[in-house]
């Protein structure tokens, strides 16, 4: 009555079984740091406002970042995907220009 193994391939038992393995391939997203650069003219209060409003930092954290840039010449405001980082840079540069401040914002691949 009962025969051998059913290979489930619709073929004759003992025939051609196909073994499929799945390999998980993970690719890390490309991330970019958004940096503010120091200059001698942009008011500290303006920089704090920029960091608070475009990078979702509270006043304390925004002040810490502004002072870091003021003392070290450059500082990180956040890390984002390419599209988000590019948007932040454009928003900050447009806002600074509108208020006639020379503040510079750049992105850098991590
Ligand atoms: N150095 C500026 C000043 O003394 C303040 C400043 C801080 C400017 C950070 C730009 O990204 C900056 N008024």
From TrEMBL:
Family of the protein in this entry: Belongs to the ClpS family.
Protein name per the record: ATP-dependent Clp protease adapter protein ClpS
A family per Pfam: ClpS
Gene3D superfamilies from the UniProt entry: 3.30.1390.10
UniProt GO BP: protein catabolic process; proteolysis
PANTHER family, per the entry: ATP-DEPENDENT CLP PROTEASE ADAPTER PROTEIN CLPS (PTHR33473:SF19), ATP-DEPENDENT CLP PROTEASE ADAPTER PROTEIN CLPS1, CHLOROPLASTIC (PTHR33473)
Compositionally skewed regions (Gly residues) per UniProt: 1-14
Function statement: Involved in the modulation of the specificity of the ClpAP-mediated ATP-dependent protein degradation.
Top-level division of the source organism's lineage: Bacteria
TM spans (from-to): none
UniProt xrefs under InterPro entries: ClpS (IPR022935), ClpS_core (IPR003769), Ribosomal_bL12_C/ClpS-like (IPR014719)
Subunit structure: Binds to the N-terminal domain of the chaperone ClpA.
Keywords of the record: Hydrolase, Protease
Domain Adaptor protein ClpS core: 27-105
Molecular functions per Gene Ontology: peptidase activity
Residue numbers spanned by region Disordered: 1-20
